[in-house]
Design a protein that fits this description.
The longest helix has 17 residues. This protein is an alpha/beta fold. Helices cover 43% and strands 16% of the residues. It has a 4-stranded mixed beta sheet, with helices on both faces. It is globular, with a radius of gyration of 15 Å. It is built from 5 helices and 4 strands.
């Protein structure tokens, strides 16, 4: 079976928690939860550090500081009305899967947040990967109705993976 997630490790600390496997499991759970097949889609996840993600955050969002996770959808999929489900992408073929987009995640910020929240690092990272994938699929949290919808999906997906509600 083709992997859904192309994982690029820029910071070797990510190997300690098995980021590639964690991301694959998270992506499959997210797509299954939304009723999408796990074949026919692909995305790229880069595991980096605060220095790299701060540069990306400055370049793409004009915010020159580190953050936990960033995402770049391959196309706009958001719903027209706050609180409604985004447009569901169509899967591609095995030879030409539908590209969902790219995610970057920072070890330093994730480790600090996990420690502050007294959560296992792998649980926190799983939550952030699911969060990033939902962004690739058109979910957002700017409007309250959208945040409620997105967080509800996050909680359900994490529960399907045996993890507690992060909120």
């Amino acid at each position: 079976m083709e992997l859904l997630v192309d994982c690029i490790i820029e910071d070797e600390r990510w190997a300690a928690i098995g980021l590639a496997e964690l991301a694959e499991r998270s992506a499959q759970a997210t797509l299954r939860h939304l009723g999408l097949p796990i074949q026919g889609f692909t995305l790229c996840l880069t595991g980096c550090d605060d220095g790299r993600i701060a540069v990306l955050n400055a370049d793409f969002r004009g915010k020159p500081q580190p953050t936990n996770v960033l995402s770049w959808p391959s196309e706009e999929r958001a719903a027209d009305t706050p609180g409604e489900m985004p447009e569901t992408p169509e899967p591609g073929s095995a030879d030409d899967p539908e590209e969902l987009g790219d995610i970057a995640i920072s070890w330093d910020t994730c480790a600090r947040e996990a420690e502050e929240a007294a959560r296992p690092m792998d649980h926190h990272v799983t939550h952030l990967v699911v969060h990033g994938i939902l962004h690739l699929l058109g979910f957002d949290h700017i409007e309250d109705a959208d945040a409620e919808l997105m967080e509800g999906h996050e909680v359900a997906i994490l529960a399907s993976l045996g993890m507690d509600n992060p909120y």
